[in-house]
Design brief:
Layout (H helix, E strand, L loop, with lengths): L4 E7 L2 E9 L4 E3 L2 E2 H4 L3 H14 L5 E8 L3 H19 L4 H6 L30
Parallel strand pairs: 3-5
Antiparallel strand pairs: 1-2, 2-5, 3-4
Helix pairs in contact: 2-3
Length: 129
């Protein structure tokens, strides 16, 4: 591996710019540790999931800039960016990451609200009389 690997991950409206290099397993998100940034255990697991899939928990340092979206979208965008960086480092890891679906961009977005309705699909109460 030569220097720093730069990748991008997206989910909903969140964008994660990931910079990965050889190190001891620290994940820094927007200048803070990922356990401080993502306070719940499921979101912390999502951040580590790509490393656990290939068995590289303490081999790389990650510095990520997250922007847009909510907290869960940012965690999944970070996961995708880390998975893409691991593929650039070692191409043999690609099949394991692909089997877990970590390389696929999850394109599901919030459906827009329609005029004359309360929400995207919910209508105002209908009154016959």
């Amino acid at each position: 591996m030569e220097g720093i690997i730069n990748t991008i991950g997206r989910r909903k409206c969140a964008v994660a710019r990931v910079y990965m290099k050889q190190g001891n397993g620290s994940i820094i998100v927007n200048g803070r540790d990922y356990k401080e940034y993502f306070k719940t255990a499921p979101l912390q697991y999502v951040c580590r999931q790509a490393f656990e899939t290939v068995g590289a928990e303490d081999k790389f340092d990650v510095k990520a800039n997250l922007d847009g979206g909510g907290i869960s979208g940012q965690a999944e965008a970070l996961r995708m960016g880390i998975a893409r960086a691991l593929c650039e480092i070692n191409i043999e890891d690609r099949s394991a990451l692909k089997a877990k679906g970590l390389l696929r961009r999850d394109s599901r977005m919030v459906e827009r609200k329609k005029p004359g309705q309360k929400k995207a699909r919910k209508r105002f109460q209908f009154s016959k009389r």
